[in-house]
Amino acid sequence: xxxxxxxxxxxxxxxxxxxxxxxxxxxxxxxxxxxxxxxxxxxxxxxxxxxxxxxxxxxxxxxxxxxxxxxxxxxxxxxxxxxxxxxxxxxxxxxxxxxxxxxxxxxxxxxxxxxxxxxxxxxxxxxxxxxxxxxxxxxxxxxxxxxxxxxxxxxxxxxxxxxxxxxxxxxxxxxxxxxxxxxxxxxxxxxxxxxxxxxxxxxxxxxxxxxxxxxxxxxxxxxx
Length: 224
Description:
- It is built from 10 helices and no strands.
- The chain is mainly alpha-helical.
- The chain folds into 2 domains: about 15-70, Homeodomain-like (Arc Repressor Mutant, subunit A, Orthogonal Bundle); about 80-220, Tetracycline Repressor, domain 2, CATH 1.10.357.10.
- The termini are far apart.
């Protein structure tokens, strides 16, 4: 798992000093990326001695992993969603819940939104933590979405088809985050409130369901 590391790590969560370092590092990592973030800058913002990062986390890499873990926890705390539950509700309702939750995590301006910024930086400039991120964060979400999409088709569908549909849905969501200047120019908005986020989630869900229904109907027509 993404652990904090260091001699002060414990199950009940980070200490006050660790939290200050994590909070400071989270903002700087999210703004500058891992490569261009320095321990000195983090410690200056956190108000701690430079040696504190090595003492509490064992270095920059372990601190980065701790920041990812903490930011992910905050995102899940603010917008919870159980990826393990494949059986609750209809595929349509699960798809909408997934889209709404991920969109809220991406567009909300709370502490949890930092995780989206960190992930965006990671996808553009992968670090040594990338394999762990794929395994622990992206794979579970991809599996949930793929199973949900598979259940929307009336007949058996290939993994390639469900995978492409999953990427298309997630792409719609992250466009609203990655293309903020375009959204600002088109909609004349700096941010979306909760009601507007829900409206966007409803649109993406309906748009995606219609596309999947059309593909399923075409497959039926082909007799496959």
